[in-house]
């Protein structure tokens, strides 16, 4: 089977490990549920494309173990005729729709097209076709991933089914390493600078991939797999707000230029963590510099606070600000020392755990090489599911 051969023949040890873990989850699901009882949620994006080919590989490995005659029946392009759910939306990119339908034909996916919202669509579908488990391309950095495990029951109030998340622990780098190693087809938008695709109303090419020429043409963006920092894959998601005249407009997400006439729509708070500032032993100058810089790019700072080196104090201040402001900037108290509590405070405010971030650890290793050991590794512990954390002694969260 070509996917299995491509990965097992790769020199990328990390990718091979991720592949083995993901296919184990898939094989486990196929062992727990009848094939007719499982479904696959496909949206045409890079993550679900990875999952499609992992399902093909996992299906092959499962059948190889349970049916001795199966291996001899295979051709080079194994298909996996799994029931596939596609939520079609009028706001989807035409390229996403085309890619989805062509992929379904290529791999014999039994496509169920739903034109309702996710919850209502699932309720209607499961009345018609009872389903016990659904494979999802959720990764830990996704907004809805917090608290999920590789096998997670659906949330209260939703139709009962098991969410199966084989690539939950995969990073942006892992996704592209898999796609490029296996040489499988993916949506063409990723070659035009799109790194995270939503709807036509909230997705633009990632400005970090702009070649420096006019950003008005997709031809002036490098492909998605060249994004250096995978934590910024959602930098192409534009944010919406309603103007005074009531019409919806798109604005930058804070990483690109923001029209200074729209400053009233973007608010930020700054939180400094440090007993030494409260004791008066040092003077805080960074907050003033941040206020000046933020104002120059279109943000209005509405609140500046200094809190103690205490997890609860940090969490309480973030709790107060995160629901009212577009951005909260936190600095101080981030690091491997016992007094550095900011990361734990952010995690507590968002109700998540602190967990190792592989991409950030790689970044640290790039900066300090073999010195990335012991206490320094603790710098790679970040709030789980919160991906827009900045390097060194500062942390930015929404």
From TrEMBL:
The keyword rRNA-binding does not apply. InterPro entries: MoaB/Mog-like_dom_sf (IPR036425), MoaB/Mog_dom (IPR001453), PAPS_reduct_dom (IPR002500), Rossmann-like_a/b/a_fold (IPR014729). Its EC number is 2.7.7.2. GO terms for biological process: FAD biosynthetic process. Pathway: Cofactor biosynthesis; FAD biosynthesis; FAD from FMN: step 1/1. Gene3D superfamilies: HUPs, MoaB/Mog-like domain. It catalyses: FMN + ATP + H(+) = FAD + diphosphate. Keywords: ATP-binding, FAD, Flavoprotein, FMN, Nucleotide-binding, Nucleotidyltransferase, Transferase. Residues 269-398 form the MoaB/Mog domain. The keyword S-adenosyl-L-methionine does not apply. GO terms for molecular function: ATP binding; FMN adenylyltransferase activity. It holds the Pfam family MoCF_biosynth. PANTHER family: FAD SYNTHASE, FAD SYNTHETASE-RELATED FMN ADENYLYLTRANSFERASE. This is FAD synthase. It comes from Iris pallida. The lineage of its organism: Eukaryota, Viridiplantae, Streptophyta, Embryophyta, Tracheophyta.
């Amino acid at each position: 089977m070509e996917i299995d051969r491509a990965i097992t023949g790769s020199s990328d040890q990390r990718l091979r490990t991720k592949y083995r873990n993901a296919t184990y989850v898939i094989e486990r699901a196929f062992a727990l549920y009848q094939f007719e009882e499982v479904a696959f949620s496909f949206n045409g994006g890079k993550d679900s494309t990875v999952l499609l080919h992992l399902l093909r590989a996992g299906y092959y490995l499962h059948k190889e173990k349970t049916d001795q005659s199966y291996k001899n029946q295979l051709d080079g392009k194994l298909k996996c005729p799994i029931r596939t759910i596609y939520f079609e939306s009028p706001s989807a990119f035409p390229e996403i729709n085309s890619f989805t339908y062509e992929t379904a034909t290529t791999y014999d996916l039994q496509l169920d097209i739903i034109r309702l919202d996710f919850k209502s669509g699932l309720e209607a579908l499961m009345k018609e076709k009872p389903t016990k488990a659904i494979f999802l391309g959720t990764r830990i950095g996704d907004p809805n991933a917090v608290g999920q495990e590789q096998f997670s029951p659906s949330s209260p109030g939703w139709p009962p089914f098991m969410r199966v998340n084989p690539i939950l622990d995969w990073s942006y780098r892992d996704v592209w390493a898999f796609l490029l190693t296996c040489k499988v087809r993916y949506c063409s938008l990723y070659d035009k600078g799109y790194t995270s695709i939503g709807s036509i109303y909230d997705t633009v090419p990632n400005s970090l991939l702009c070649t420096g020429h006019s950003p008005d043409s997709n031809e002036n963006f490098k492909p998605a797999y060249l994004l250096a920092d995978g934590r910024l894959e959602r930098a192409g998601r534009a944010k919406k707000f309603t103007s005074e005249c009531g019409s919806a407009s798109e604005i930058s997400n804070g990483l690109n230029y923001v029209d200074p006439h729209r400053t009233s729509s973007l608010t930020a708070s700054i939180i400094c963590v440090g007993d030494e500032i409260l004791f008066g032993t040092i003077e805080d100058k960074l907050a003033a510099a941040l206020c000046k810089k933020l104002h120059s790019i279109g943000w209005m700072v509405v609140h500046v606070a200094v809190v103690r080196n205490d997890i609860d104090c940090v969490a309480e201040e973030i709790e107060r600000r995160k629901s009212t402001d577009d951005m909260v900037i936190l600095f101080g108290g981030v690091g491997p020392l016992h007094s550095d509590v900011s990361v734990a405070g952010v995690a507590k405010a968002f109700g998540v755990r602190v967990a190792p971030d592989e991409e950030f650890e790689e970044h640290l290793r790039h900066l300090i090489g073999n010195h990335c050991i012991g206490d320094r590794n603790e710098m790679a512990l970040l709030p789980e599911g919160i991906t827009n954390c900045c390097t060194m002694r500062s942390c930015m969260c929404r």
